[in-house]
Write a structure and sequence with these properties.
The chain is mainly β. The chain contains no helices and ten strands. The strands form three sheets. Strands 9-6-5-8-10 form a five-stranded antiparallel β-sheet, with no helix packed on it. The protein has a three-stranded antiparallel β-sheet with strand order 2-7-4, with no helix packed on it. A two-stranded parallel ribbon has the order 1-3. The protein starts with 15 loop residues before the first strand and ends with a strand.
């Protein structure tokens, strides 16, 4: 983030996500979150900007990695919604794991969290 007016998502009002995967990483100053139906979503805020190249992972209660995202730029906030995220479920957020499989735009629905450091836990909404 180079300025707090440079959010990853920019809308005039609100927007809805009714399926599929959305990953948006950027500054936290103008953080916009979607109205999500049919699946869960997470909003991750970092106490300090995560540097470019940081791997952020979402770990389900059973220990499986349901999402991995490698940042392309310094990131203060991450918005994620996908069919693998279940509303009302608590997920661990970790950094430092490995993105595995076919990543698209730095995102994959999986990964290896063996070397990751857990930052905390969030309930999907």
């Amino acid at each position: 983030p180079t300025g707090e007016g440079n959010g990853a998502l920019d809308v005039n009002g609100s927007f809805a996500v009714t399926g599929g995967t959305l990953v948006a990483a950027g500054s936290s100053g103008m953080l916009v979150t979607p109205d999500v139906t049919g699946q869960g979503s997470l909003v991750v805020g970092f106490s300090a900007a995560a540097p470019a190249g940081t791997v952020v992972q979402v770990i389900a209660p059973d220990g499986s990695v349901v999402a991995s995202f490698q940042t392309a730029k310094a990131t203060e906030a991450l918005v994620l919604t996908s069919p693998g995220i279940v509303s009302g479920t608590a997920y661990e957020i970790a950094v430092g794991g490995v993105v595995s499989g076919q990543a698209v735009g730095g995102y994959t629905a999986g990964g290896d969290a063996g070397a990751a450091t857990t930052l905390g836990s969030l309930d999907a909404v």
